[in-house]
Amino acid sequence: MSQSTLKQRTDFHSIEELQLPFMTFLSILRHLLQSPRSHYDAFVTSEFRLKNDEFVQQVIGLATALKKEWKLKKGDKVALLFWNQPEFFVSFFALRLIGAVPVPINILMTPQDMGYVLAHAEITGILATEILALQLAEQKNCSVEQLPFPLLIANAAESEKSSFEKKISFYAPAIHTLEDELDAFDALMRSEKSSNNELAFLIYTSGTTGFPKGVMLSERNILSNLAGFQTALNIQRDGERFLLGLPVFHCYGLICALFAIAERATVICVPRFNPKQIVDFLKTEAVTVLPLVPTMFTVLLQAAKRKASHEEVHSEKPFPTLHTCISGGAALPETLLQTIQENLNVQVLEGYGLSETSPVIAVNTAQRGAVAGAVGQPLVNLRLRLVNHETGDVLPIEAGKASAEGEIQVAGDSVMLGYYKNEDETAKVLCADGWFKTGDLGHIDAEGLLRISGGRLKDLIIRAGENIAPLPIERILVQHEAVAHVAVLPLKDEKLGEALCACIELMPESKEIDQKTLQQELSALVRQQLSASYTPDAYRFFDELPKNPTGKIVKKQIVLY
């Protein structure tokens, strides 16, 4: 990338400059109705299919019910408790139509964290699938009717329609066209002087470093990220088929789903990550795009291999329609990248981002393809800089030269409004001039690609006075064929201050391996690629390392013994 190109990309950061075909979530709904494929599957589940116009009609029906019966007002916050299912998106868009704020809840949170989020977000009500509503009531030791929030259930027993369906059916427009109904909501929001710069929804972080923080995002944040994502991926409009195996309560899963909806693709919903069901859908539903996290790809490949072993006909491309896999949420090991490419015969695009940046910061482009160890170029509508975390100096980035390592900071329309009711934490990460501190260390290589070269600043291990980032060590250790997952943690040591402890989850077929021999092989592997000071001082082996719902290892839950 030339210096002029780099400057052009980093200065190009406005929604208007990108000439988006839609400016609000309401406009996305209009966009769906204008599809040249007048009646296409917007959503597919194992039980039913929902057409694009049916989806819009359900959104309008629910929005009307929430406005007339629940008396929801602009800015009211409503929790969403759903698996990956169309009802989540009906609820999400319905709330935005009336200016209410969806709060997707991590349904795998501990009861304590979920209680904290519901209280902290000051929710007005809950939209939920039946089983999750019952679980919530059980956690609060009460019946569903006794929950301290108004609640609308999205699915009930097969013998009767759910209250959710009844309200949609009752309020669904019967006389006017869907476009007329959307015009009415547009007029409503204009009368309330709504702006796409105001709070559109709250998404809570996973809480791996303490209480979950409520990330405040605007419609402008999300739509800007969608536009930059589209420019990078260059996905064909009208006809792509996305498989949604990532949880929608996580920003990565949500942005991929919203991207698919906005591009008039079909979203094939897997309620919870189920490798067997994903393999079946990949074969039967002509899936073209598959976003997952690295740990999910590992499990999926194992499931695909088992299924292939039982089939008589073998193909070099087991899923003929699949052309793109997107990886995010954690570093993609080079060996896994190669395995995906070789076994699935697809293009793999690794990306990087955070909830606070809506979430994508950078992604490898479809034109260039995968580059091992790189997460691609920053989105065209984001500015990126590297800052020396010790001096605070902005590091130079020169065309054709690798930059020095620094903290990755970004600015642009994708950067969050702040943390909800948490000014202190907001001030720690948002500079006065709008730059967001990611806390991640990285550098720009000679080709202009971003590489997450160090790790998170707070994860640095101080070993004998030297700052050691765990990530490079983890990337090397996971190259060993016996290692499934790895996390490097500090271990208190009288001599070193902090020693390096490698926590290893072995591959299923390697459970009986001699651990002493394996430790020697792993240490030799690290010494071959890094300095001796990066060699782990200790190893701990686990049947399974703790992970959050997106497959990211939760280091604070690892107990060293």
What is the element layout, followed by pairings?
Layout: H1 3-11, H2 15-18, H3 25-33, E1 41-44, E2 49-51, H4 52-68, E3 77-81, H5 86-97, E4 101-104, H6 111-120, E5 125-128, H7 130-139, E6 151-153, H8 163-171, H9 178-191, E7 199-204, E8 214-218, H10 219-233, E9 241-244, H11 251-262, E10 266-269, H12 275-284, E11 289-292, H13 294-309, E12 324-327, H14 334-344, E13 347-353, E14 360-363, E15 377-378, E16 382-387, E17 406-412, E18 418-419, H15 423-429, E19 436-444, E20 450-451, E21 461-463, E22 466-468, H16 470-477, E23 483-493, E24 497-506, H17 515-529, E25 538-542
Parallel strand pairs: 1-10, 3-4, 3-5, 5-6, 9-10, 11-12, 12-13, 24-25
Antiparallel strand pairs: 1-2, 7-8, 8-18, 13-14, 14-15, 16-17, 17-19, 19-20, 21-22, 23-24
Helix pairs in contact: 3-9, 4-5, 4-8, 10-11, 12-13
Unreliable residue stretches: 1-22
In spatial order, strands of the major sheet run 11-12-13-14-15
Class from secondary-structure proportions = alpha/beta
> DSSP helix count?
17
| CATH homologous superfamily placement of the largest domain | ANL, N-terminal domain
Radius of gyration: 24 Å
| Helix residue percentage | 25-40%
What would CATH call the class of the largest domain?
Answer: Alpha Beta
Count every beta strand, where a strand is a DSSP E run of 2 or more residues: 25
CATH domain topology of the largest domain: Rossmann fold
Report the sheet-strand fraction: 15-25%
How is the quaternary structure best described?
Answer: single chain
Biggest sheet details = 5 strands, mixed
Overall pLDDT metric: 87
Do you know the CATH architecture of the largest domain?
Answer: 3-Layer(aba) Sandwich
Based on Cα principal axes, name the global outline. Answer: globular
Domain tally? 3
Q: What gap, in angstroms, lies between the N and C termini?
A: 48 Å
